[in-house]
Amino acid sequence: MVKKADRKYGVVLDAGSSGTRVYIYRWVKNAVARQGAASLQTLPVLETKEKWTKKVHPGVSTFGDNPESVGPDHLKTLLKHALRHVPKEAVPETPIFLLATAGMRLLPDQKQKEILNNICSYIRSETDFSLPDCDSHVQVIPGETEGLYGWLAANYLLGGFDAPQDHDHGKGHHTYGFLDMGGASAQIAFAPNATEAEKHANDLTLLRLRTIDGTPQEHKVFVTTWLGFGANEARKRYVEDLEETYGIDGLLEMPDPCLPKGLKLTEEGELLSSSKEADHKRFLLGTGKFDECLRRTFPLLEKDVPCPDEPCLVHGVHVPAIDFEVNHFIGISEYWHTTHEIFEMGHKDKAYDFNTYQNRVRDFCEQDWAKIQEGVADKTWGGNVDEQTALEVCFKASWLINMLHDGIGIPRIGIENTNFSSHNGTKELLESSKEKGFLDPFQAVNEIKSTEVSWTLGKMVLYASADVPPAHENDLPVGFGSNVPGVPDDFQYPSGGILQDIKPSHPGSSSETESQSITDQIHDTLFHSDASHRLPGFIFFLLIVIIASFYLCGRDRRSRIYNYFISSPKSSRPPFSFLHKILYRGSKAGLNDRDLEDGTSSRLYDPTDFELGNLSASSSDDDLSVTPRPTSRSGVDKSSLSPQNSRRHLDRLASTVIDRTGLVVRTESRERLGGDTTATNGRSKSRSGSPTRLK
How confident is the model at residue 439, as a pLDDT? Predict the structure, then answer.
């Protein structure tokens, strides 16, 4: 039985274009996991629950003009939800990340920065979650990073990392490809076959993980993203094309084959409330012709854009050749929702082939809108399908089919005979997938092993993997970056700067470089950071330094400082005398033993200003004293030059009991400074027990 204290938690907020969803993950601390693991050659086991997840609308990008409201109006509910499920005692050590995706990428940099700053400040003020660095914990991540996290999550859940022998796809390949489509962007991530990996080595990302026994794993993955090729952004481009085609002066009606028959929408995608309203503004009129819809969405792939680095798939973006014999793809997000929310739920099937899928899309989209509205009211497609979902799905389905087959090149299983067969291959596929383990070219999923496939899971798998101590001192850190040996300059650590400070040595690195990096981080934090508490923190830091210096400066120096401020009249203090005392270690108040030993101090008094009193062999330690001499070598009476506090200090020294060690130090100091050659009463300058003299 694992105790509560043996568990760790992590919180990730996925700030997408349409909303923000909070995910909570939990795993067992590494020391405990090692004891109970059936195999040590596995990654940390993360768990999550459906009730730990919550989403709010709209996305954080909508707060571009009102960034100070993003906390109370958007994040408050999500943070309360997270605090409800993370044990109170675990909160301070639970990392929290807010990672924004395509919606925020479309905003200007300044608006992005203002929103992120307000998010970080709000989380810090309202919770005790671990958020040491805003730049790494609250950020807009590139599409490539989002795709890599998704690839990691899918393969983690499928088990390809822990048991590669059970996922042998041939040619030494055991991982799965990953496809994701949101509202604003689409991503692809896969490990090319050996030939393509060697040919396009510079285009790959090196991902490094660590199993619970500290053994490293390395994977080389190709990742790219298409910003503007998500379902919602593609729809915007599609409507613009319709406007160019039908937007003639005086013509209000624009036929749209991607809408059900009779459906009328504004150009912004809103339902027209009445026919009268349609008389005054341009609108889209659904014709329900799905085959024509497929033809009109194809140009949105922009396959004619020049490809500077062959081969390319969509919009002139380079992608290594995909070997579908070994690359089997998992699709999430819109790939799942668009294929299952209506076209599977209504038929009670959990898997599908594309022949069945396209038939169902055509049947649905060619209905009258009034009939579809009745089906929504009767919950024919389940309680989650509303009118907005129903009016959007026809375009999304056509866009998905074009993206998969004409864009990425997924083989058209079952599609070729669409007009001639009514066979439903769903049940056969469902049964075969249990044995083959997602070995079809493409499979849309929402969950694997009862866990939602989300790129946020990949983020936390990487974080938990980095939490495992390395098996060897020189093992390279967990993270990802360019496909080069060692730790590249663009290497990204799972939790930002914390792991950078402790990263082990590697070829091409130096402690000097790392120290400089840390210094730069401190400098940036103090003088370039946007943190609201930077100045008070800096002042507090200086106060700590001053207090520490006071206690480290020695008892005598502390005594002088105390006497200066407490005992001396303010009128007798010369300007800047306090700094003089601290910086030059001395004053008119008395001598410093270390200065006498060094013989290098520049002072108002000569070292011979003090001489030892009478000393006999029978003298006890109590008889030893230091007597101040009344005049200097110039004959000037120094008592007349010393300030009041100096006389008081000399009187105190004269009456202070000095141990024999102190006597030796002072005697030796006089010898080294070339003082009198004879000691009082004809005694030798030093005893036989004196320290060795400098030659």
Answer: 65
- CA–CA dist 166, 143 (Å, integer): 30
Q: What is d(CA 488, CA 508) in angstroms, rounded to the nearest whole number?
A: 9
185 annotated among ligand-binding-site residues: yes
Mean pLDDT confidence for 500-519? 36
Q: Is 146 one of the catalytic residues?
A: yes
Outline where 18-101 has alpha helix (H).
30-36, 70, 76-85
Q: Is the pLDDT of residue 627 over 50?
A: no
346 in a structural domain: no
Residue 315: exposure state from Cβ atoms within 10 A (0-12, 13-18, ≥19): middle
Residue 307 and residue 316 in contact, taking contact as beta carbons nearer than 8 Å:
yes
Say if residue 183 carries a ligand binding annotation. yes
Distance of CA 589 to the CA centre of its chain: 56
Tokens of residue 114, six digits = 């203002």
- Tell whether 197 is in a known binding site: no
Q: What is the pLDDT of residues 246-268, one digit of tens each?
A: 877 767 889 999 999 999 999 88
Q: Are residues 644 and 541 in the same domain?
A: no
Q: Of residues 47, 50, 89, 146, which has the active-site annotation?
A: 146
Domain boundary among 552, 581, 603: 552
Q: For residue 38, what pLDDT is reported?
A: 67
Sequence letter at residue 620: S
pTM of the entire predicted model: 0.69
Q: Which two tokens stand for residue 369?
A: 């809108």
In single-letter form, the type of residue at position 94 comes to: T
CA–CA dist 442, 354 (Å, integer): 10
The residue segments making up the domain with residue 517 are 510-552
- Reported for 601-610, long-range contacts at CB under 8 A and 24+ positions apart, including other chains, are 604/641, 605/632, 605/638, 606/632, 606/633, 607/669, 607/670, 607/673, 607/675, 608/633, 608/670, 608/673, 608/675, 608/676, 609/638, 610/666
Query: Same structural domain for residues 137 and 23?
Result: yes
pLDDT interval class at 281 (50, 70, 90): confident
Q: Is 186 annotated as belonging to a binding site?
A: yes
User: Which residue's entry shows tokens 């929408």?
Assistant: 265
**In the prediction, which pLDDT does 536 show?**
66
69 belongs to an annotated ligand binding site: no
Task: Work out the percent of the chain whose per-residue pLDDT is above 70.
Answer: 68
The arithmetic mean of pLDDT across residues 31-46, rounded, is 85
